[in-house]
Specification:
Mean pLDDT: 81
Strand order of the largest sheet: 1-2
Number of strands: 2
Order of helices and strands: EE
Oligomer: single chain
Strand content: 5-15%
Shape: globular
Helix content: under 10%
Distance between the termini: 20 Å
Number of helices: 0
Radius of gyration: 15 Å
Structural class: mainly beta
Largest sheet: 2 strands, antiparallel
Length: about 100
């Protein structure tokens, strides 16, 4: 499964050298069904776009696909809260940030 939630008002970044600061908070629980490993987690994202129609679920977290993963043109900052180890991405273990 894959889903997205967006902040109501977009952040506006400019190209100046000024620092930008913001804060937010959220509460969640990643609790898989008994006997099931769970999913690939989720990510807190800052992106230049809210169009993720070409993204794949699972290890791409609904943000990327095999051709956009790692691409500098993606212009995404993602903090991943993962619950599954993916060897293809050199994950350190199954529960990591």
């Amino acid at each position: 499964q894959m889903g997205h939630a967006f902040y109501k008002q977009p952040f506006h970044f400019d190209s100046s050298e000024k620092k930008l600061s913001f804060s937010t908070h959220f509460v969640c629980a990643l609790v898989p069904k008994p006997g099931v490993d769970g999913g690939h987690g989720f990510a807190f994202v800052v992106s230049s776009s809210i169009d993720f129609t070409q993204a794949d679920p699972t290890q791409y977290l609904g943000l990327f696909n095999i051709s956009t993963n790692g691409s500098p043109s993606a212009q995404i900052l993602a903090i991943e809260l993962d619950t599954v180890q993916s060897a293809e991405f050199d994950d350190i273990d199954k529960d990591h940030v």
